[in-house]
Amino acid sequence: MSIAMLRRRTLLAATAAGTLSPSLGRAQAAPDLSGLPSLGALARSQGLTFGAAVQGQLLETDPDYHRAFETEAAIVVPEWEAKWSALQPQEGRFDTAPLDSILRWAQSRARPVRGHALIWHNDLPDWTRAALGEGRDRALAVMAAHFDRVLSHARGQIRDWDVVNEPVANPPGSDVPQAGPGELRDTPWLRALGPNYIDIAFRMARERDPTLRLTLNEYGIEEDTPDATEKRRRLLALLRSSWRGARRWMRWASRRTCRWSAPSARRPSPPSWPSCGRWAWPC
Q: Contact 169/182 with Cβ under 8 angstroms?
């Protein structure tokens, strides 16, 4: 058995530590992982970067949780702390303290941080939803103000942002299918700005930081099922449409195994469209 497989199986077994053993009726001891390379090191040996979404509060209060990230993760993604409702719960009142806690932890360990997510249909405070319902100009102003504050605040440490998260509608057969014929998810942003809201968001981010790595994040496209195939087609159609207009502002990332990187202002033109199943997320 390879070291990578052994490490993975051992780590999965470790997640069961503290549960009752069916045969012994007592808590199982956590296996000793000290003699094995970390998942981060194993990924790095294959030219990949391994990491995970992190919750700042657990990082501070749960020793086992802290130890797992300390040992295994070579990159971290704030699970909630960089989302809209966490950063701007009231209009004009920004609270970066939870995010800053993660940034300090990562900086002290030389771990990169990916930002997640600037534009999403969930985790929007009531005031933001109301503002988006007031028309296009109001929506543009709200987006611009949020980008101004957040991107400038995190510029020194977050160099990779999920600018738009989950914009593609789930087709029939998905876990949560969207009713209606549209290929884009019906969101407050779509209703306020139309399908061009994705382009607008990436352009705003690029204007504020020409060297930032910009990502469109999506899920449910990896499996060999009819609904995943259709969602993958929708995503690629969205990206191809953007490229035909010479709007080179993003890369895309799937939750699990698919990624394509587009150039920043300093990067060359991209290769041809990739097939799925080769890349690790996040990297």
A: yes
Asked if 14 and 30 count as a contact pair (C-beta separation under 8 A), the reply is yes
Question: In angstroms, what CA-CA distances link 74 with 123, 176, 246, 257, 279?
Answer: 27, 32, 34, 17, 16
Residue 259 CA to its chain's centroid (Å)? 12
Give yes or no for a contact between 142 and 129, defined as CB atoms under 8 angstroms apart: no
Rounded alpha-carbon distances, angstroms, from residue 216 to 32, 115, 160, 232: 38, 12, 11, 13
Backbone phi, then psi, for 162, in 5-degree steps?
A: -75, 100
pLDDT tens, position by position, 20-59: 334 444 556 666 767 889 999 999 999 999 999 999 999 9
Residues 6+ apart with CB under 8 A from 244: none
Phi, psi of 221, deg, nearest 5: -120, 0
> Residues in the chain, how many?
283
CA 80 to chain centre: 10
Q: What are the CA-CA distances from residue 52 to residues 1, 69, 113, 209 (Å)? A: 25, 8, 10, 25
User: Residue 282: is the preceding peptide bond cis (ω within 30°)?
Assistant: yes
